[in-house]
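so my prof wants the structure for this chain in the tokens format not the other one, which i didnt know existed until like an hour ago. anyway here's the sequence
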Amino acid sequence: MLTQTFRRIALSLILAATASGLHVLPAAQADPWAKAMADFEQQDAKPPKPGGIVFVGSSSIRLWDLARSFPDLPAVNRGFGGSQIVDSVKHVDLLVIKHKPRTVVFYAGDNDLAEGKTPEQVRDDFKTFVGKVHAALPETRVAFIAIKPSIQRWALIGQVRRANAFIREYCDADDRLGFVDVDGPMLGWDGKPRKDLLVEDGLHLSPKGYVLWTALVRPFVE
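here's what i got, hopefully its the right format
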């Protein structure tokens, strides 16, 4: 009887909120990355050693086998697939600051443009990310991997290159920032993305693609 009363009260509150124009979200939808962040917290149960390298961003980071690519470096993977730059901004304390890294390697912006954000918004979101990192860790270096050209999102290549140009300009103004250009190296003689660097979906990197990225990123993390 008591349970039914509670249910009626909860239903009444939801109906009242809906009637007043409030949008009620289930708790599970409040933060779509809650599980990913909980997993990272569990991995960090043992305090991470400061001075390492943190790779942060979307699926291109999440799918990167860092132990294989950088076996000689203290690299930590904090990629979560489908994310945008603002998601890394929101969780920057857990993803980056907690580790006190000497270098952060960042890749995102791909999903942002696909969801309709402008190149200017992508740049500004990255500037916000860097600002939060440097507010806590002023000496930490941040390397931005350029938004990659891909077959699946080739229609967005104009916006991709504008966003990359904005971010390169921003990085060039600060010695603590680096810009890793992957656009040219990922193109074939026809000026289109090389199929051998991507998996079948035409979006994510193949093992050969990661070999290329590793070669391009290594100078920034050494």
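also thought this was worth mentioning. DSSP finds ten helices and five strands in the chain.
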